[in-house]
Design a protein that fits this description.
Blueprint: H1 3-9, H2 23-28, E1 51-53, E2 64-73, H3 78-88, E3 92-98, E4 104-110, E5 142-152, E6 163-169, H4 171-184, H5 188-216, H6 225-233, E7 241-248, E8 252-259, H7 264-281, E9 284-287, E10 293-298, E11 302-309, E12 312-313, E13 323-331, E14 344-348, E15 351-355, E16 361-369, H8 375-378
Helix pairs in contact: 4-5
C-alpha cells in the first residue's frame, strides 16, 4: 500500500490531530491557521537513531521505506561541525569534557547510526559501502556517518542502466587490421609483402577519395562525383562505421516526497529532515593552505541509500553505491495554496526555530552515484 493511500485512510488515528483537507480547505486555512497539538510518540516506531517521516514509518501498513545515511567529509573540522548539526536535530548528545588543566571543551557524541539501538523488532543495519571504482578507493575522503534519515517509499521509484558508445568510420582501419591478422600467420618476406600490399591498397582507396573530393570542389558545377556515381550505379559507399564502447554511465536517482505534518512533533521532524538534506548537500568554506582563508571549499557530504521492506533490505530492488545530492527542490505551496498551521516554536541548539509550519510540503531530491558500475557490482545486486 502506498503512503499516500495509507495516509488518507488512516488520517484520524490516535496520533493525528486534524482531518484530511482538500485544496479548498488549505486555502481557507490561510485566514484560520490549523492548530498543532504536541502529539504522542507512536508505539510502533523505527527505533534506531534516525530522523523519520512519517513517525510510524515501520508500521505493518507501510512496510516499505528508504534509509539515507549521511557520510561526512572526514578532512579538517568538517566532521565536528556536522556532529554539532546532528545535535541540533536530536541525533547527537552534547557533552562537556573537562581536561587536566580545567579547561572545558564541547564534545558531540554521535550515536552509532549503523546499529540497532534497543530495537526489539529486529531491524538490520547495513555496514558502510566501500567506494569501489574510484581513484580514492584506497584513501576514502568520506568515512564517518553523522546522520540518518528514514522516509516512506515514494511513487515512481526506478533505475536506469546506460552505456556510452561512440561511432567511428573504420574503412581503412578495418583493412589494416585484416592485413595484420593475415600477416601474423606468415613469416619473413611473405609477411612483409602482405603488410606492404595492404597498406598500399588502403592508400590507393584513400587517394581515389581525395581525387573525387577535389573534382567536387574544383569550381565547376559538377556536384559530388562520388554521390553522382553512387546514384547512377544504384549503389552507396559503405562508411564502415562501428560502435565502440567508451564507458558505463553514472546512474542518478530522483525521489519526490509529500510531507503532511499531523502534529507539532511531526512538523518539527519534517523541518529537521529538510534542514539536514540541505546542510549535507552543501560544501563548507574554510581556511586553506598558506592562510588563504575562504579560498577553498570542503566538499559536501556523501549519501548511502538503502531500500527496506519491514526490517531488512529489499533484495528485489537494486542496490545503490555512494551518492552525492545534486539538487533539492522544495515546494512550500505544494497544492497551489499557501497554507500553514498556527504558530509554534522549538529549540535547536543555540537557536530557536519559530513561525508557522506549512500543512503540505513537497520535496524532490536528485542523487548521482559517485562511481560507475561494472559486472562485479552488478553481480552483487546493483
Amino acid at each position: 500500500m502506498s503512503y499516500s493511500k495509507y495516509y488518507s485512510s488512516n488520517f484520524n488515528n490516535s496520533n493525528q490531530t486534524e482531518p484530511a483537507k482538500s485544496s479548498a480547505a488549505f486555502g481557507a486555512s490561510l485566514k484560520s491557521p490549523i492548530k498543532l497539538s504536541e502529539g504522542k510518540k507512536p508505539k510502533n516506531s523505527l527505533d534506531f537513531n534516525s530522523l523519520k517521516y512519517p513517525m510510524d514509518i515501520s508500521s505493518e501498513e507501510l512496510g516499505h521505506y528508504i534509509v539515507f545515511y549521511l557520510i561526512s567529509n572526514s578532512h579538517g573540522s568538517v566532521v565536528n561541525a556536522d556532529k554539532e548539526m546532528a545535535s541540533r536535530v536530536g541525533l547527537a548528545e552534547k557533552e562537556a569534557v573537562l581536561y587536566d588543566d580545567a579547561t572545558e571543551k564541547t564534545k558531540y557524541n554521535v550515536k552509532d547510526f549503523r546499529k540497532n539501538n534497543d530495537n526489539d523488532e529486529g531491524f538490520k543495519y547495513q555496514s558502510s559501502l566501500k567506494p569501489e571504482n574510484s581513484v580514492l578507493s584506497s584513501v576514502p575522503t568520506h568515512t564517518i556517518t553523522t546522520g540518518a534519515i528514514t522516509l516512506y517509499m515514494p511513487q515512481n521509484v526506478s533505475v536506469n542502466y546506460g552505456m556510452t558508445y561512440g561511432v567511428e568510420g573504420t574503412e581503412l582501419s578495418g583493412q589494416i587490421v585484416s592485413t595484420l591478422n593475415k600477416a601474423r600467420k606468415q613469416s619473413g618476406v611473405a609477411a612483409f609483402k602482405t603488410i606492404a600490399g595492404g597498406v598500399v591498397a588502403g592508400a590507393i582507396d584513400k587517394t581515389a577519395q581525395i581525387v573525387g573530393d577535389a573534382l567536387g570542389s574544383s569550381g565547376l558545377d559538377v556536384g559530388n562525383p562520388q554521390k553522382i556515381l553512387s546514384k547512377a550505379l544504384g549503389v552507396a559507399l559503405n562508411p564502415h562505421e562501428e560502435q565502440f564502447f567508451e564507458k558505463p554511465n553514472f546512474r542518478s536517482f530522483s525521489y519526490t516526497f509529500d510531507f503532511f505534518p499531523r502534529n507539532a512533533r511531526e512538523a518539527k521532524e519534517v523541518h529537521n529532515i529538510l534542514w539536514m538534506f540541505k546542510y549535507h548537500q552543501h560544501p563548507s568554506l574554510d581556511g586553506g593552505p598558506g592562510g588563504f582563508s575562504g579560498r577553498y571549499f570542503k566538499v559536501p557530504s556523501e549519501f548511502e541509500i538503502f531500500y527496506y521492506y519491514k526490517n531488512d533490505v529489499n533484495d528485489f530492488m537494486n542496490k545503490i553505491s555512494r551518492c552525492v545530492l545534486e539538487s533539492l527542490d522544495i515546494q512550500y505551496s505544494a497544492d497551489g495554496q499557501f497554507s500553514t498551521f498556527d504558530e509554534t516554536r522549538f529549540d535547536s541548539g543555540d537557536m530557536t526555530v519559530k513561525g508557522a509550519p506549512m500543512t503540505h510540503i513537497k520535496a524532490t531530491l536528485k542523487f548521482n552515484e559517485t562511481t560507475y558500475l561494472t559486472k562485479q557490482q552488478i553481480a552483487k545486486g546493483y
